Amino acid sequence: MTSTTGPRSVARFRPQRDGWWRLAEIIATGRPFTSTTASLRGERERWPTSFGQLPAAHAARLRADSTRPGIDVIIYSYATPIAWHAHGAGWTLPDVTYSVTTSRHQSLVRVALANPPALARTSLAA
């Protein structure tokens, strides 16, 4: 994992026990995170480590966002990027259907991003 802000501890997220609100808190802090099985993870990186099953059009968008304006967080379900945050452009959540588990991950991320804690409104804006 490539860090853009120096070393940070990795937050643990338990999809079966923790709710979207816990994921929203983790995302708001900007910390990298991983689920207990590492099937859902968020990494602070400028370039994706994998494109997984991301369709070509979305992969091209991710590549473009990686070079301009730049990526600071990519959220993966298994090896596939399901969301990313680009400086000045905000969050991208491709509308793509995958497996049942990845669909559950997408739903958690979508709800967490739609309901940020008060901290999130200031931390990602910086």
Automatic annotation (TrEMBL):
Pfam families in the record: DUF8033
DUF8033 domain location: 72-106
Lineage: superkingdom: Bacteria
UniProt-recorded name of the protein: DUF8033 domain-containing protein
Source organism per UniProt: Haloechinothrix salitolerans
Organism ancestry: Bacteria, Bacillati, Actinomycetota, Actinomycetes, Pseudonocardiales
